[in-house]
Amino acid sequence: MSSAEIIEHLKPLLRDTLQLGKRAAALTASSRLLGTIPEFDSMAVVSVITLIEEQFDITIADDEVSADVFESMGTLAEFIRTKVQG
């Protein structure tokens, strides 16, 4: 699965979790997440991680979670891609 495909899977997940509505459709690899999307706070990160683990059938350890991972859609997608590929 490519990062672009992962981003397409992430859009509805973020739309629903963060209640972004139509704004989610405009998300691209360069779209900033933490610090840019007001709804994406620390509690939302926990919810998003749980949904990512379920949707992509991966496990994310606490020490793997950092601001760098959630910097942009691209960094998040690349993180997921490496986890999926194992």
Question: Summary?
Answer:
With 86 residues, this protein is mainly α. It has helices spanning 3-18, 42-56, 73-85.
Structure write-up:
The structure is a single chain. The protein is globular and about 30 Å long. It has three helices and no strands. α1 crosses α3. The longest helix has 16 residues. By secondary structure, it is an all-alpha fold. It has a single domain, classed as Non-ribosomal Peptide Synthetase Peptidyl Carrier Protein, Chain A (Orthogonal Bundle), CATH 1.10.1200.
CATH class value: Mainly Alpha
Largest sheet: none
Give the termini separation: 12 Å
In CATH, the topology is named Non-ribosomal Peptide Synthetase Peptidyl Carrier Protein, Chain A
Write the CATH homologous superfamily: ACP-like
Secondary structure class reads mainly alpha
Topology:
Blueprint: H1 3-18, H2 42-56, H3 73-85
Descriptive labels:
3 helices; mainly alpha; Non-ribosomal Peptide Synthetase Peptidyl Carrier Protein, Chain A; globular; 0% strand; 86 residues
